[in-house]
Write a structure and sequence with these properties.
122 residues; 2 domains; mainly alpha; 6 helices
Length: 122
Amino acid sequence: MIRYLWLLCGIVSVGLGIAGVFLPVLPTTPFMLLAAWCFARSSPRLHRWIVEHPTFGPPVRHWQAHGAISPRAKTMAVTAMSAVFALSLILALRWEILLVQGLALLGAGTFILTRPEPPSGP
């Protein structure tokens, strides 16, 4: 039963990750990382598929092997977080909401920016 829950979680994560390709506010890579983690616990075939996928595979492999995030992904993530916070400012949300959102985004941004970059080469 647990295996099927991991499988379902992985499938939903892949769906959200694919949606993130088309929706700029929805990140793709974290959902693919979650999917790989879930598939590692439920389906070796689907885990292999995501790790070897030409588009989704490299960030997953870099994260699994080195805890690394590419400079491009870091830039995109921080830019998206900044845009979301700017939108919150434009919408004049209450200061309490801005404070919580700002602290959460600052923490997430710090985490992302302090991850190593993937090694160069094949």
